Amino acid sequence: MAIRPILILPDAKLRQVSEPVKAVDDDVRKLMDDMVDTMHDAPGIGLAAIQIGVPRRIVVLDLAKKDEPPEVRYFVNPEIVWSSEEKSVYEEGCLSIPEYYEEVERPARIRARFLDREGQPQEIDAEGLLATALQHEIDHLNGVLFIDHISRLKRDRVIKKFIKQAKQKESERG
Ligand code: NI
Questions:
Q1: Ligand 1 centroid vs 133 CA: distance in angstroms?
Q2: Alpha-carbon distance 167 to 154, whole Å?
Q3: CA distances for 101 relative to 8, 77, 91, 147, angstroms
Q4: Average pLDDT in the chain
Q5: Boundaries of every domain in the chain
Q6: Which helix (H) or strand (E) element contains residue 133?
Q7: Distance, CA 45 to ligand 1 centroid (Å)?
Q8: Close Cβ partners of 39 (under 8 Å, ≥ 6 residues apart)
Q9: From the candidates 79, 86, 137, 172, which is the catalytic residue?
Q10: What separation in Å is there between the alpha carbon of 140 and the centre of ligand 1?
Q11: If you measure from the C-alpha of residue 10 to the centroid of ligand 1, how many angstroms do you get, rounded to a whole number?
Q12: Which of 25, 3, 45, 28 is nearest to 132 (CA)?
């Protein structure tokens, strides 16, 4: 298990569409363990493989609060098969867009299909934070970021800020 570096906006890889996983084998489980370590270390409640530079359709979530034991969920090739008309609004953040939070409106409830850690097909009905987090992470697999769901004005502003920060870091490195 290892903590891997997280890609930060405006890294072009974050816009890549991830490829389906053909088989959930030990290599995939090893990758998922690294993702969990990286997510817990950050700390964050969700991570998609592309955020550590691996373009495969894998998501891990852990919505447990700080004082609760970890509750890791694994989603391989997750797919939303139904979403409610009803919407809900959550303030979202993203480990690839650190220290930026904005309200995002999404379907309040979804049904998703995926493979679990053992490669078994599963279906889940999600609402509340789980529904939001899962939609946020599945977006990552399609190269979509939560800032794509906010106003263009706000999005342009945050992208500009992160481009500037990346340039500063680049020049500090010399
Ligand atoms: Ni994210």
A1: 9
A2: 20
A3: 15, 27, 6, 9
A4: 97
A5: 12-173
A6: helix 128-141
A7: 9
A8: 45, 46, 47, 60, 62, 95
A9: 137
A10: 7
A11: 13
A12: 45
What is the predicted pLDDT for the residue at 66?
Answer: 84
Place 109 in a pLDDT band, splitting at 50, 70 and 90: very high
Half-sphere exposure of 27 (CA within 13 A, CB side): 5
3-state DSSP assignment of residue 47: strand
**Region of residue 48 (left: phi > 0; alpha: psi -120 to 50; beta: else):** beta
Please report which residue ranges of 13-93 form alpha helices under DSSP H: 26-41
Residue with tokens 């370590």: 37
Residues paired with 60 in a beta bridge: 47, 74
Indicate the CATH number for domain 12-173.
Answer: 3.90.45.10
Residue 137: active-site member: yes
